[in-house]
Amino acid sequence: MDKGLLIVLSGPSGVGKGTVCTALRKRKPELIYSISATTRRPRDGEVDGVNYFFKEKEQFLTMIQNNELLEWAEYVGNYYGTPIQFVEDTINAGDDIILEIDVQGALKVKETFPEAVYIFLVPPSIDELKNRIEGRGTETADIIKHRLSMAQEEIELLKHYDYAVVNDKIENACSKIESIIVAEHCKRFRFIENKTKEEV
Ligand SMILES: Nc1nc2c(ncn2[C@@H]2O[C@H](COP(=O)(O)OP(=O)(O)O)[C@@H](O)[C@H]2O)c(=O)[nH]1
Ligand SMILES: Nc1ncnc2c1ncn2[C@@H]1O[C@H](COP(=O)(O)OP(=O)(O)O)[C@@H](O)[C@H]1O
Q1: Is the backbone of residue 184 left (phi > 0), alpha (psi -120 to 50) or beta?
Q2: Ligand 1 proximity of 40 Cβ (cutoff 6 Å)
Q3: CATH architecture designation of domain 6-199
Q4: 97, 6 in Cβ contact below 8 A?
């Protein structure tokens, strides 16, 4: 059986990764979402096991020690990491999975899965990014300032990604990501066809 696609979606805080992923999953219910572990406190409305697996620092460090994480990173004072077993099981079952992770984590995943599809979600402008993260109203002014300063550094790492998608309108961004997924499946299908011809 062909393996599923591993899709990595990154982008600065407030660009709309969560919003675009939710919309994408409505349009493509077969796309599996990787739920990360984090030591960040839940925001209002966030549910353990749905948005994140919320952990205490000790529990998170144990996950690292037990090699339960594909990658992990510290971002603005909290730990975030991707449980590895679920990712491996999903792609081995032939299903596509999307990881919504920061750039440090994405670069680590690239060491293990260079063949994954790396997509960077870009804001239409820095002013609009600021409006969105402030408008969400989930972080203090200090944290917002820190996250916006991280955004500048993160955008410089765009060159390590296969695709940049501007999140101007949610539906546009979703359509572009859907097209990328279709194209990547076609590429792999061609690769398998060529390999079969060579082997014959
Ligand atoms: N490396 C890594 N980053 C993650 C993971 N899960 C979430 N993140 C990233 O951590 C950063 C902060 O996430 P969060 O606190 O939910 O804020 P938000 O992106 O502004 O909604 C974002 O860049 C997320 O993409 C993960 O498992 N690993
Ligand atoms: N294309 C868009 N146009 C306008 N607002 C958006 C768009 N995408 C997301 N938003 C808003 O921006 C804020 C941040 O989005 P969110 O998905 O939480 O970002 P992230 O997960 O990247 O931190 C939210 O209030 C969301 O409703």
Answers
A1: alpha
A2: yes
A3: 3-Layer(aba) Sandwich (3.40)
A4: yes
Cα 120 from Cα 66, distance rounded (Å) = 30
What is the H or E stretch that residue 157 is in?
none
Euclidean distance between CA atoms 117 and 194, whole angstroms: 20
Average pLDDT of the chain?
Answer: 94
Cβ contacts of 159 within 8 Å, gap of 6 or more: none
* pLDDT at residue 26, as a whole number: 96
| DSSP at 43 | P
Neighbours of 188 (CB within 10 A): 14
What the block records as the tokens of 159 is 């060159």
Question: Over the stretch 70-101, which tens digit does the pLDDT of each residue have?
Answer: 999 999 899 999 999 999 999 999 999 999 99
Atom of ligand 1 nearest to the CA of 17: 19
Q: Is the CB of 15 under 6 A from ligand 2?
A: yes
Which value does ipTM take for this structure?
Answer: 0.97
Cα dist. 195→63, 190, 191 in Å? 39, 8, 6
Beta carbon of 34 within 6 Å of any ligand 1 atom: no
CA distance 12 to 154: 7
Structure tokens belonging to residue 77: 């004072």
39 DSSP assignment: -
What local confidence, expressed as pLDDT, does residue 2 receive? 86
